[in-house]
Design goal:
It is built from eleven helices and 18 strands. The chain is α+β, with helices and mostly antiparallel strands.
Length: about 375
């Protein structure tokens, strides 16, 4: 694994140990998430930043400090954290450590902390071009108590290499280069995905390749092998059809996993070496097809063993029987993180039939 260290000559941008039981100079409390309702609380006490949230809180108060940036391309943020009563599996998009460059969106420093012992956390952030400062802070949008301490923000020398090729700009660390054969294969994969989706003006893609999961986690705070942020792909793979199709289809929308996972599988037409339609037919013949309505719930989708196979078959059925326009409408009108009932209503409107009838029709197609 590549280990990145800060420039030997550079002093930290911020080193805060929260030793006093009072707000340190330059810090402020502010509502980070939510617009109305009772706020959560922040306190500087017992040598740390203490965030407390109850189930009644609808506004989530954070503590943050603005840091000036000058001629810095990357920063590394580290801290220590321990939690009390925070439920495992909390998936709030921003939870705990966060950053916001001037005029930009909130960036997560990782998933909600749940461990009751002190744990080290870190995040490496790219400074957007033209950004002169960054807000670094902490917030807790789920019930429980979290304590943060020993915050360090420092400039970083990150040995990234870059090359633009066609519609993709590749980024990789100097020890992990691309080959010409891989770049050529990705050119073909991009064109195939563009044709599959019927896009006439597909977006340009930034393809960030990491040598391993630990390095990707440090840069993105996402533990998955591949993830998408806007038109950027972050992956440990030099070729990744899942993320390629997902980022191109983002021009349609950001739907729940049943549709998002299904579309790239319909394009790839295989899952773990198995033909999607053939494997789904075998599952149907064994009476094991899960319901489409159930799989619209992301929690149930994640807990169902054959959810991805079902999703791939469902998208393939929609494309072949209903047409890509219906798939696009489904992507446009459903929302990742939206209420299951609302997504079901939107999907049924796009299909022109109930999900129960769609499941039966798909089974006949298989």
């Amino acid at each position: 694994m590549l280990v990145l260290v800060s420039s030997a000559w550079a002093l930290p941008l911020l080193s805060e140990h929260f030793d006093a039981n009072a707000m340190p100079a330059g810090w402020k409390t502010t509502v980070v998430v939510g617009q109305s309702g009772p706020p959560s609380t922040v306190a500087f006490q017992d040598g740390g930043v203490v965030l407390t949230t109850t189930a009644k809180n609808k506004r989530f108060t954070g503590a943050q400090k603005k840091i000036e940036l000058r001629d810095i391309e990357w920063v590394k943020v580290t801290a220590r954290v321990k939690a009390t009563g925070v439920a495992a599996g909390s998936d709030a998009p921003i939870c705990g450590l966060y950053a916001r460059f001037e005029g930009g969106d909130l960036l997560s420093g990782g998933s909600c902390p749940t461990g009751t012992e002190w744990t080290d956390i870190s995040r490496i952030l790219r400074v957007p071009e033209g950004a002169h400062d960054v807000d670094i802070g902490f917030v807790l949008p789920v019930a429980g108590t979290v304590v943060y301490d020993d915050l360090l923000v420092e400039p970083l020398d990150a040995p990234w290499r870059h090359v633009g090729r066609g519609a993709i700009t590749y980024h990789w660390l100097s020890s992990d280069p691309y080959s010409e054969a891989t770049l050529a294969a990705n050119d073909e994969a991009y064109e195939a995905a563009q044709a599959f989706l019927g896009l006439t003006a597909p977006p340009r893609i930034d393809w960030w390749k990491y040598p391993d999961l630990a390095t990707k986690l440090a840069y993105t705070a996402q533990p998955d092998p591949g993830s998408v942020e806007g038109s950027a792909v972050h992956t440990i793979f030099r070729s990744d059809p899942r993320e390629l199709v997902t980022v191109l289809a983002r021009t349609w929308g950001d739907p729940p996993p049943l549709l998002a996972e299904g579309l790239w599988l319909a394009h790839a037409n295989e899952l773990d070496g198995r033909d999607v339609k053939t494997a789904a037919r075998q599952l149907a013949n064994g009476g094991g097809l899960p319901s489409l309505a159930g799989l619209l719930d992301p929690v149930k989708f994640a807990a169902t063993p054959d959810a991805k196979l079902m999703a791939g078959a469902f998208s393939k059925w929609m494309i072949e029987v209903k047409g890509k326009e219906v798939v696009q409408k489904a992507w446009t009108t459903t929302k990742r993180g939206g209420a299951v009932a609302d997504n079901q209503k939107a999907l049924e409107a796009a299909l022109g039939m109930s999900l129960a009838d769609a499941g039966a029709a798909m089974k006949g197609w298989l």
